[in-house]
Every structure is written in structure tokens, then in C-alpha cells.
TrEMBL record:
GO molecular function: hydrolase activity; metal ion binding
Highest taxon in the source lineage: Bacteria
Cofactor field: Mg(2+)
Entry protein name: Fumarylacetoacetate hydrolase family protein
Length: 516
């Protein structure tokens, strides 16, 4: 355990609570509260949620924490701890901070081996003796700006967490006011306000240090470093009394912070759509107006970068150019495939109401017709009549890695078109219109019906429908960050430490974002 429960401080009190005014009646902890941690977990909660920790889990600085026998996933979580000074019951948001007397450092240790069976209560996984070190010093909350606090955590002297309260999803005062709606916060109660990204697994012998400070306040007050050393425990758990520790790759990933940190293979990509795909597209593969609006704001370069981070590096339609460079293309893919011309096959498949005409006649509103033409520039794959038909059907645009016939007339329609070249020859010179609504290859990338297609002056990118929401949100967040960095560079700052941002620049950016 972290501290000998019989030890006393200089005033004769239980040494576990030496950093606090008294033994807390309750310790309330927040599940997810920092944007960096929420993004790491792949979910941003709309509202805070909580769990209780027993006061017997509280410990002071300088102690040890045992990793029980038969377990592997003991993880640290550096946190800002609030200590309640006056009773709070149904307090308003403007008044909530007045009920906080002190701020200090906390470490919300958790044993992920025991997490699954507690269904989010964290009773066993976070309630062990010594799993809540606090201290060493209390900061006067009245002298602090709750939006300008900094939290840092070191493991064996290496900085692992560095974030500020500007990065919180829920301001500290909101946590106090929200909890007071449900229960009375009493003097001495402790609120653990969540951990940012960087929490990970520690092993016996590791030394974890947590510090909370206010770097922009007068005197830069600090809690001092809360120090805890991990040891190997001698005792495990009895299967006859309760469930035993158990881990899987999900728990390993969340404990370590990522699959790569846990030594696991990358997460498998979402299953591709299975063909034949029913038309119209199933509801889950249609673009909502909200997603479409976000994609219209997201640059293709940014979307491509986010897809690369997720292991998709072959998603650009290469060799095509926009007919209307200032017009954005966003839509869901419908596909058409041409095969190389062979006179007997063109005789059987090229005339009449062929696959090309059927595709243009059935393309739907908000859809992009993607044409596989093998990069062949020696004939047109569409002309003005078919472009007019697609426009009348409400199509979002056309992408072809082949030629366009009647170039000026096609351009006059105004529909976003990406193409390889202009050519006067008709289709049959190089192609046979073969089939539609199947997986095709366009500009060196594979496109399936239902994929989301986005184009701008930089080119065209193809996004699997299961990834669209997370990719576009991540892109827009990165665009905000990049725009701010560009402003700093334009103002004369060097790129070293700024691009990418180090901890100091990150804190400045987070403060700017919080002030918007």
C-alpha cells in the first residue's frame, strides 16, 4: 500500500491525510474531462460523468503504491485536485468556485486488470489503499484563475503529461456546480478533475511525480511535486471470493494510451462495404447535412494527412485536375468502369442504352460519378449531354481519370468535374462502357460505391464512410491549430518549438483557444 495507516504527522494526525485539512468525507472523480484525453480515447462526452473513490485510498507524498501479484496494468493519471471549503448544494455556475478552498496535485492510479467487471464504477480498479496520492502543498483557490492552471506528470524524470485547464472540456467550476445538483459537497471533500493525454502504465521501480501550478499568476504558486514509487506487491486475489484480474487488448490499449505503446499491432481498419451494394445507399452510408458542411470546410490536404495517420496512404485520385478550381467537390461515390476497346465487345456493349448512359441516368442527388478509364487520355469519357443529365439529377460532381469531350460546353454546365485531359474523340476510340456500381480503380486508387469523395484545387481524396466523421473533425481541429501557428510565424516567431508545438507553445495555444 502507499502509506502505513498507523503513521502520524507532526500534529498526531493520520499521515495519509497530511496534505489535507482533514480526512475527506468523499472523493469524487471525473471520467473524461480533457480534450486531449477524450480525443485519445476517440470520444468526446457531451456532459461530465463521475465515480467515487474511498477516502481510505488517499495517500501523502513520498509513499509507495503496490502493484498486486498477478496484474500488469497499473496506470498513473496526474490530476488537479480541488478541496471543498464550504458546503455546496445546488450552487450556480458563477458561485461554484467560491466553494473551493484549495487546489493541489493528485494521482488517480488505476489497475486496469480489475476494470472490466466493475462496469465503470471503478470500485476495485481505483479504490485500493494508496491509489489516491494528494499534495504535497495546498494552493489558495481564491488567488487562482481556474482557467489558467497547469498540470504536469513525470515518470522517472521524463515529462509524460503537460496540459492546462484551458484544455478542459468542462471548466472546473462546472464540475462543482454539476455535482452540487446531486449531492452536498462538504468541507474537506476532494474532486479529482480528470487527466489529460499521456497517462500510461508504470511498473515496479518507477517513480511518478505530479505537480500543479499557476505559471501566469503572481509568484507562480505550485503544489510542489507529489512523489509516488511503484513496488511489487506480495499478495494477489482469491478466486473463491471474487473475480480475478483479466486483461485483453482493449484494456491494454486504454491503459498504455495507444496500441503502439502497448506493443500491439495497429487497429484493423473498418470492414469495407460488401458488394453488391443496394441502391439507394443504406442510411448509415449517406452523408448527413452536418458532415457535408464540415467536409466543405475541410481542405483535401488536411483530410489526406488525417487518413495517413490512420494507416490509409493510397486514397488520392492522382493525375486529375479540376475544371473549376475554385469549386469544392463533396459527395458519395457512384462508379462506372470502362475496359479497353475491343471491336466485338464494343459492338455488344457500346451502343444503345449502355452502362455509361445508365450510370449518368441514375446518378443521385449528392453523388459523385467516379469513372475508371485507366488513365487513358485518347478519348472522351463524357461530354456535354451526359454532364447536363448528371447536373439535372442533382449530382455533386464527376471524377474521371480519362478524357473529357466538348470541354467548354461541359465547363459551362458548372458541375464540379475532375479529369485528366480534353480530347475530341468519342468513347469507342479507346473504351468499352462495361459496368457500373462496383469497385473501380480511378487515378491509381480504389473507389467503392458509398465511399466519400472530396475534391479541391489540391486534388481528390477518397474516404471510407466509416471514417468520415472522425477524419473531418480531426482535420478541422488541426486546421485551427495550423492557422494559429501560421499567425505566429507571420508575426516573426521561428518555427523551432512552434511547428510542431512544444509544451510552452501548446500551453499558449490552449489558452488562446479557451479565450475564443
Amino acid at each position: 500500500m502507499t502509506h502505513d495507516t498507523t503513521s502520524k504527522d507532526a500534529d498526531g494526525r493520520d499521515g495519509r491525510f497530511s496534505a489535507l485539512p482533514a480526512r475527506p468525507g468523499k472523493v469524487v472523480a471525473v471520467h473524461l474531462s480533457y480534450a486531449s484525453r477524450a480525443d485519445q480515447r476517440g470520444r468526446r462526452p457531451a456532459h461530465p460523468s463521475y465515480f467515487l473513490k474511498p477516502s481510505s485510498s488517499v495517500a501523502a507524498t513520498g509513499g509507495t503504491i503496490e502493484r498486486p501479484q498477478g496484474t500488469e496494468l497499473l496506470a498513473f493519471e496526474g490530476e488537479i485536485a480541488l478541496v471543498v471549503g464550504t458546503p455546496a448544494r445546488r450552487v450556480t455556475l458563477p458561485d461554484a468556485w467560491d466553494h473551493v478552498a484549495w487546489v493541489t496535485a493528485g494521482n488517480d492510479f488505476g489497475l486496469y486488470d480489475l476494470r472490466a467487471n466493475d462496469k465503470g464504477s471503478n470500485v476495485r480498479s481505483k479504490g485500493g489503499d494508496g491509489f489516491t496520492p494528494l499534495g504535497p502543498d495546498l494552493l489558495d483557490a481564491r488567488a487562482l484563475d481556474p482557467a489558467a492552471l497547469r498540470l504536469r506528470t513525470w515518470v522517472n524524470g521524463v515529462l509524460r503529461q503537460d496540459d492546462t485547464t484551458a484544455g478542459l472540456l468542462f471548466p472546473l467550476a462546472q464540475l462543482v456546480a454539476d455535482l452540487s445538483q446531486h449531492l452536498t459537497l462538504e468541507p474537506g471533500d476532494v474532486i479529482l478533475t480528470g487527466t489529460p493525454a499521456g497517462s500510461s502504465v508504470v511498473v515496479p521501480g518507477d517513480v511518478v511525480e505530479v505537480e500543479v501550478d499557476a505559471p501566469t499568476a503572481a509568484g507562480a504558486p505550485t503544489s510542489g511535486r507529489l512523489v509516488t514509487t511503484v513496488t511489487q506487491g506480495e499478495h494477489g486475489f482469491d478466486a473463491e471470493l471474487g473475480s480475478l484480474p483479466a486483461v485483453d487488448d482493449v484494456q491494454r490499449t486504454e491503459a498504455w494510451g495507444s496500441r503502439s505503446e502497448a506493443g500491439l499491432e495497429p487497429e484493423p481498419l473498418p470492414e469495407p462495404l460488401l458488394l453488391p451494394l443496394p441502391l439507394p445507399l443504406p442510411e448509415q452510408f449517406r452523408l448527413t447535412p452536418e458532415l457535408r458542411e464540415k467536409l466543405l470546410r475541410a481542405p483535401v490536404a488536411g483530410l489526406s494527412a488525417q487518413l495517413r495517420k490512420r494507416g490509409l496512404d493510397n486514397v488520392t485520385v492522382d493525375g486529375v485536375r479540376p475544371m473549376h478550381p475554385g469549386t469544392k467537390l463533396v459527395g458519395t461515390a457512384r462508379t462506372l468502369r470502362f475496359v479497353p476497346n475491343r471491336e466485338d465487345l464494343f459492338a455488344s456493349h457500346g451502343g444503345g442504352y449502355n452502362a455509361q448512359k445508365r450510370a449518368f441516368d441514375t446518378v443521385g442527388e449528392g453523388e459523385v460519378l467516379v469513372i475508371e478509364a485507366r488513365g487513358e487520355e485518347g478519348a472522351g469519357t463524357l461530354g456535354d449531354i451526359l454532364t447536363l443529365r448528371a447536373h439535372a439529377r442533382g449530382a455533386a460532381g464527376i471524377v474521371t481519370d480519362g478524357g473529357v469531350r466538348d470541354h467548354d460546353a461541359v465547363a459551362a454546365v458548372g458541375l464540379p468535374v475532375y479529369y485528366r485531359a480534353a480530347h475530341p474523340a468519342v468513347l469507342g476510340r479507346r473504351h468499352v462502357p462495361w459496368d457500373a456500381d462496383l469497385t473501380v480503380a480511378c487515378g491509381g486508387t480504389t473507389v467503392q460505391p458509398g465511399d466519400v469523395v472530396v475534391g479541391d484545387r489540391d486534388g481528390v481524396v477518397v474516404i471510407p464512410p466509416a471514417l468520415v466523421a472522425q477524419v473531418v473533425d480531426a482535420t478541422l481541429r488541426q486546421e485551427d491549430e495550423d492557422a494559429w501557428i501560421a499567425e505566429q510565424v507571420a508575426a516573426g516567431h521561428p518555427v523551432e518549438g512552434l511547428f510542431p508545438m512544444d509544451a510552452a507553445w501548446r500551453a499558449r495555444y490552449d489558452a488562446w483557444r479557451a479565450s475564443r
